[in-house]
Amino acid sequence: MNMWGVKRKTWNVEGDKGAAMRAFVTFHVPRFTFIARVFIPRILPYHRGQYIWNETGTGMNPTRAARRTICQTFDALKARKQIGLVPFIPAGYPDLATTAAALPALESAGASAIEVGFPFSDPIADGPTIQESFTAALEKKLKIADIFATVRQARPGVSIPLVAMVSYSIVFRYGVAHFVAEAKSCGFDGLIVPDLPPPEAQGICDIIRSGGLDTILMVAPSTAPERRAEIARLSSGFVYYLSVSGITGERDQLPADLAENVRQLKGLTDRPICVGFGISQARHVAQLQGLADGAIVGSGVVKRMKSHVQGGPAAIAAALADYSRELLSQVRR
Question: Who is most buried in 89, 223, 245, 286, counting CB within 10 A?
């Protein structure tokens, strides 16, 4: 009698090979099947990298669902009749550990995508809050390779799209094809190049898309109608609509012409329209619900980072998660 409660039988293998094989199959295969059904599903996630150590290092937590593209993300939001939240964080501010901690924290708080800003010494349309964060990061000798390495490190725990906001000067000096390849490899899904207007943008957008990344261009309230159509055509991820002309920064009220401008853009393209510049409060996001596809929040996020900088990466990440939940409080029930 064995451990399974089955009486053993001795087989003459040489004299009855067929019977021996039938006995082996009859006895062992059901048990192999049982083991496979119970243990393989538990083993494979570790083999495939679907589990990561939790923040305390005391155990393993499942990561989020498989990565989603920009298109998949906004299609899902549209199906649920929801607006997406797209927070902006400056890479390397106040340090790269904060960048790595902020990405999964923002996703866990409901962000639909994250915009990662590459610090630049001569920022385009960035207000004083973001300029200050860029300056602080650059003073620490931040390198492009450092940003790519940090995103690559954090990416396994983040499933939502990551979009790089980067000056064309940086991309050009790095080498356009090289930059695109590295950005794709480390886990970015798209590029926002704010200082690359059409028609000059056409060739660069072709390189970006051929490298597997989406292109995202900006439209301002002052952009002429024919130029808006060209920008919309060149944008494969979403169109970034600036709620106001000028620089970024928190504002109390959204412009009166915002709704009409967004509706006009939607008449030019089937790509999602995300609104940025001046979005900083839950009621702003609620106002955009049903009008725009996404709300981009920059200066408000960076201010929260600055106010918690003494607490280190964990404190900053927690503050950003709280702020994201606050921003979504009127549109997520």
Answer: 89
| CA 86 remoteness from chain centre | 9
Residue 243 Cα distances to 36, 42, 132, angstroms: 56, 49, 22
pLDDT band at residue 57 under the 50/70/90 scheme: very low
- Side-chain half-sphere of 171: how many Cα atoms within 13 Å? 22
Q: Assess contact for 237 and 216: CB atoms under 8 A.
A: yes
Fold of 65-327: TIM Barrel (3.20.20)
Other Cβ atoms within 10 Å of 128 Cβ, number? 11
**Under a CB-based contact definition with an 8 Å cutoff, are residues 193 and 201 in contact?**
yes
pLDDT, position 255: 75
| pLDDT value at 199 more than 90 | no
Q: pLDDT band for position 294 (50/70/90)?
A: very high
pLDDT at 259 over 90: yes
Mean pLDDT, the chain, as a whole number?
A: 84
Q: What is the arrangement of strands in the sheet containing 218-219, beginning at the earlier edge strand?
A: 214-216, 190-192, 162-165, 114-117, 84-90, 294-297, 273-276, 239-242, 218-219
Using a 10 angstrom Cβ sphere, with 0-12 exposed, 13-18 middle and 19 or more buried, the burial of residue 240 is buried
Q: Are 134 and 123 in contact (CB under 8 A)?
A: yes
Q: Is the pLDDT of residue 155 over 80?
A: yes
Using the 8-state DSSP alphabet, how is residue 292 labeled? B
Q: Is 324 helix (H, G, I), strand (E, B) or coil?
A: helix
- What's the CA gap between 330 and 102, in Å, rounded? 23
Angle 331-289-188 from CA coordinates, rounded to 5°: 90
pLDDT reading at 8 higher than 60: no
pLDDT of residue 217: 96
Q: Which residues are catalytic?
A: 115, 126
Strand partners, 162: 114
Domain boundaries, the chain: 1-48, 65-327
Distance CA 229, CA 311 (A): 46
